């Protein structure tokens, strides 16, 4: 059709222009014209413009204008439609959906139960399940390993860490700073819906450790028994050995031979050495955690004030100085200035 239109007499130029336009429109390309305007290859647009303008301006046939004397053939209408359609639908590269960056999520805490076997220790249970001893102790809120009954059912967490009871004024950021952990880990491990916490709430702190002194206290290793002998008097109200009047006894008495070595029950610093009318020769040692220990009725002193001593180090000898009925060691433990029963710290 297009060749027939082009070869007609040049005197019908206006009609020729319109018919050429109609021929292109008749290609039946079903596409949006606005979109197609940007996608049709420029070669075909140039061809239409040059063909139309050449015929109008010079009166020459398309063969002479376009090929300068050499015949060319325009594509058939069906072929033209196929070319234009393929140009519009030509793939522009596979479109990849936007992927939201994946942020590492700390595993949520999970628990299982385990029943202790006869004769099994907490340390053995911890090793069996691949967790630390302090994790097992904290998760089960054990305050004294000696009080864990045989056959006790224990909670076993899937990761190491400790339980923390939220105090007034606490926040996740404050707790995170205290235990050097990420706030996001606290949120993930405890499956918190928000960062709001309240006093009394219990949180699992992933990776955290119990303080060494607290762990030793729970295990009964915080204090070493200070000497060899038998306990002749316990902590609390008792009759005075001289008068019989009931009075408060702020420690325990351990009797043995004079000169029996006396050891520092816990590592610390010798705070004071002196002589007292009732306690005779004595030593006071200051320890971490607010603890102090008191050793009285000593026969001799084997240390000096201000010296740092290790747990178990010999600091003196048992005697009967001061207000005493015989050779013995009076041993007291003070916590934040208040006397506490020393026997609670020994296995």
* Class derived from helix and strand content: alpha+beta
Note the main sheet: 10 strands, antiparallel
Average residue pLDDT: 79
Helical segment count: 11
Give the second-level CATH assignment, the architecture of the largest domain.
Answer: Distorted Sandwich
| End-to-end distance | 111 Å
Helix content: 25-40%
Task: Name the CATH superfamily classification of the largest domain.
Answer: Glucose Permease (Domain IIA)
Order of helices and strands: HHHHHHEHHEEHHEHEEEEEEEEEEEE
Coarse shape: elongated
Alpha-carbon Rg, integer: 48 Å
Beta-strand content bin: 15-25%
Runs in which pLDDT lies below 50 for 5 or more consecutive residues are 1-12, 19-47, 49-77, 83-103
Quantity of strands, as a count: 16
Text of the CATH class of the largest domain: Mainly Beta
CATH fold-level assignment of the largest domain? Glucose Permease (Domain IIA)
**How many domains is the backbone divided into?**
3
Describe the structure in your own words.
The protein is an alpha+beta fold and 347 residues long. It has 3 domains: 88 residues; 109 residues, LysM domain (Membrane-bound Lytic Murein Transglycosylase D, Chain A), CATH 3.10.350; 116 residues, Distorted Sandwich (Glucose Permease (Domain IIA)), CATH 2.70.70.10. The strands form 4 sheets. Strands 5, 8, 9, 10, 11, 12, 13, 14, 15 and 16 form a 10-stranded antiparallel β-sheet that branches. A two-stranded antiparallel sheet has the order 1-2. A two-stranded antiparallel sheet has the order 3-4. α2 packs antiparallel against α4 and α7 packs across α8. The termini are far apart.
């Amino acid at each position: 059709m297009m060749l027939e239109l082009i070869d007609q007499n040049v005197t019908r130029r206006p009609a020729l222009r319109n018919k050429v336009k109609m021929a292109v429109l008749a290609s039946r390309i079903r596409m949006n014209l606005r979109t197609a305007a940007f996608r049709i290859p420029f070669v075909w647009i140039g061809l239409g413009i040059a063909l139309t303008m050449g015929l109008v301006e010079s009166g020459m046939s398309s063969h002479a204008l376009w090929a300068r004397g050499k015949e060319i053939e325009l594509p058939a209408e069906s072929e033209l439609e196929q070319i234009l359609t393929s140009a519009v639908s030509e793939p522009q590269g596979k479109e990849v959906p936007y992927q939201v960056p994946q942020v590492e999520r700390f595993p949520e805490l999970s628990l299982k139960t385990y029943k202790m076997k006869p004769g099994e220790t907490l340390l053995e249970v911890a090793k069996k399940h691949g967790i630390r001893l302090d994790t097992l102790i904290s998760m089960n809120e054990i305050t004294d390993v000696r009080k864990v009954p045989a056959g006790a059912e224990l909670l076993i967490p899937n990761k190491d860490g400790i339980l923390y009871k939220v105090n007034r004024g606490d926040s996740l950021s404050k707790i995170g700073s205290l235990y050097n952990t990420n706030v996001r880990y606290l949120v993930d491990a405890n499956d918190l819906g928000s960062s709001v916490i309240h006093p009394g709430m219990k949180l699992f702190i992933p990776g955290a450790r119990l303080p060494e002194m607290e762990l030793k206290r729970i295990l009964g290793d915080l204090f070493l028994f200070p000497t060899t002998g038998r306990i002749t008097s316990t902590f609390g109200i008792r009759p005075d050995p001289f008068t019989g009047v009931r009075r408060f006894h702020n420690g325990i008495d351990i009797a043995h031979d004079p000169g029996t070595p006396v050891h520092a029950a816990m590592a610390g610093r010798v705070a004071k050495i002196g002589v007292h009318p009732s306690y005779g020769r004595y030593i006071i040692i200051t320890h971490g955690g607010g603890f102090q220990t008191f050793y009285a009725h000593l026969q001799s002193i084997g240390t000096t004030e201000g010296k740092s001593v290790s747990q178990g180090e010999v600091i003196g000898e048992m005697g009967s100085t001061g207000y005493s009925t015989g050779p013995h060691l009076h041993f007291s433990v003070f916590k934040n200035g208040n006397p506490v029963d020393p026997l609670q710290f020994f296995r």
